[in-house]
Amino acid sequence: DAKTTQPNSMESNEEEPVHLPCNHSTISGTDYIHWYRQLPSQGPEYVIHGLTSNVNNRMASLAIAEDRKSSTLILHRATLRDAAVYYCIRGGGNNRKLIWGLGTSLAVNP
Amino acid sequence: EAQVTQNPRYLITVTGKKLTVTCSQNMNHEYMSWYRQDPGLGLRQIYYSMNVEVTDKGDVPEGYKVSRKEKRNFPLILESPSPNQTSLYFCASSFGSNTQYFGPGTRLTVL
């Protein structure tokens, strides 16, 4: 199956780091790894993406395994506003189709 | 303000009555895409467009048509809607297929 695999749900406490895993064992060499999140009643929102190297931006960090078969989205300090469904997606680049998984629903406890 | 707009936001219609959901972006993006979101199935891509007059099928194109006559607009057309097309629809745009910006969604009910 070309889809990514993520845990259905995860829970975190406010101000603690969160590591969201994703498996993409059939990823091709030109596929990027994207992460989006979707807050309740909103459209998905871009978080981060990468190809081979780890990436950092103001929202999160993306750690990509050396064999590229898995990746981890890292939220350094979870806030209540980070409660959302997080999607790990493969594709883009030369493969224009983006293949979405079912996402991980993240709950953040105060 | 940079944005993707969709209209209508909510629509209830009947089987077989042709409808169009409009999508417009003001960011001069080449790439635009339509998705549907269903419980338990996640987001599935319907069609995408790399640029004006260039469109291609996504994962679930059956029952849908699109057109890209100008860069900013990418309407989704349902020629003969059926109840299995009841869903939440999202339009997105980007430079290339990275960093997509999504619209607010259109909730469609086909009776």
Q: Please count the helical segments of chain B.
A: 0
Enumerate how many helices of chain A there are, as a single number. 0
Indicate the proportion of strand residues of chain B.
over 45%
Fraction of residues in β-strands of chain A? over 45%
> Which descriptor suits the 3D outline of chain A?
globular
Structural class of chain A: mainly beta
What does this structure look like?
The complex is a heterodimer of chains A (110) and B (111). Chain A is mostly beta strands and 110 residues long. Chain A is 0% helix and 52% strand. Chain A contains no helices and ten strands. In chain A, strands 1, 3, 4, 8, 9 and 10 form a six-stranded mixed sheet that branches. In chain A, strands 2-7-6-5 form a four-stranded antiparallel sheet, with no helix packed on it. In chain A, strand 5 and strand 6 form a beta hairpin. Chain A is globular. The mean pLDDT of chain A is 90. With 111 residues, chain B is mostly beta strands. In chain B, strands 2, 4, 5, 6, 9, 10 and 11 form a seven-stranded mixed sheet that branches. Chain B has a four-stranded antiparallel sheet with strand order 1-3-8-7, with no helix packed on it. Chain B is globular and about 35 Å long. The termini of chain B are far apart. The mean pLDDT of chain B is 94. Classes of the chains: A mainly beta (110), B mainly beta (111). Chains A and B meet through strand 3, strand 4, strand 8 and strand 9 of A and strand 4, strand 5 and strand 10 of B.
Note the main attributes of this structure:
heterodimer, A: 110 residues, mainly beta, 10 strands, globular, B: 111 residues, seven-stranded mixed β-sheet, four-stranded antiparallel β-sheet, 0% helix
